[in-house]
Design goal:
By secondary structure, the protein is mainly alpha-helical. The chain has two helices and no strands. It has helices spanning about 5-70, 75-85.
Length: about 110
Amino acid sequence: MPKGARSGKRPARRRPLIALFLLGFFVVAMGVIARRTFGISQAREIRERAERRDALDAARVKLEGDIREASSRARLGPLVERRLQMYVPADSQVIIVPRTTPASRPTP
């Protein structure tokens, strides 16, 4: 057999091996692309949720400040005086009664 005819059959044996290698490479490449695409979408969702959490935290802090301001004595004082017709008595109107304990009570 001539040398050229013999080398012509050898590549025929390698073709399925090369095709299998290319198919494997293609499958691995598709897996990598799919994983990266999924990772990018997950990173976008995580970033959006973090931004929403930060906005909600800022709103909570603002609301807590509004509650503190609305429940302060300076804000409630005039409102109570107007609606309930209550007032802070003058010092001359306040009577301080000493508290007695059961042991110091006088016996009848």
